[in-house]
């Protein structure tokens, strides 16, 4: 049993996004012995690239599972093309407009009703609503990806969010009426203020990330999935922040599988606001001595000109001094694989070096 994980190069300029194609099973055998999955579709133009990649490298027009981690444009916009050009069996997507019970009471506007909140969510998340309608018209099975949802092989499992956690986040989604989330406000203020560049000096093993990072409610609603193949654990995190990742870590720690972590997606393109040292210790492990490797690969999906915002050097360092081979796509395609056929023209990549000095926006 093997796997191939392909991070598509999303973002020609500075705007990063996610589009991941993967397949697992007997990759030397027939299509019936493999499961093909897409996690997010990047921007609209990324959809055609995903379709071509699936056809040329996986040799199929059929996608078993299409997952939208959350409805941000850099994750969802390419999925329409995938659904129209390929045969999709299942769509895993959240339907926040169906989680509107009792929401009206959470807003200051007394004229709001649960039904009007649901309609507001459909309007604000128009692309997600459209994809659900498109899937229904094509007879595609739709599942909401909450904790413990598994695929037919039981190899792919959703670690988070739980229904309860997701519903706690919905009132703070962007565009909701008169209830401004402190989390969203802090993140927006941080992004606006991140303009001055400062030189940082790092010491091996010394984290320059904290546990106080915040991200938006919509990011924290990201689907976090786990793939277990041949005793190897692979984690896909979307744009989840510390809150969502911590709950996923709970699931990993109580998992009966003895699978060892071999791959983890660096959340939110390597943003400093999405990962903290405590949750990183739980998911990956404590810092190790220089030169020690845990045999884990971590990939951040970043735009070609995304730096210094994506990825943050402090985040890459935090993974590196935990014995992880950290890599950023920087607008290019990266394949991580195990027990898979060799691809002509694809070469090995060197991991990110440890950055003892770096410039970063503050």
TrEMBL record:
Q: Which residues form the Metallo-beta-lactamase domain?
A: 32-103
Query: Superkingdom, according to UniProt?
Result: Bacteria
Residues of the signal peptide: none
Pfam families for the chain: Lactamase_B
Q: What InterPro entries does the record tag this protein with?
A: Competence_DNA_uptake, Metallo-B-lactamas, RibonucZ/Hydroxyglut_hydro
This protein is called: MBL fold metallo-hydrolase
- What organism, scientifically named, is this protein from? Marinomonas phaeophyticola
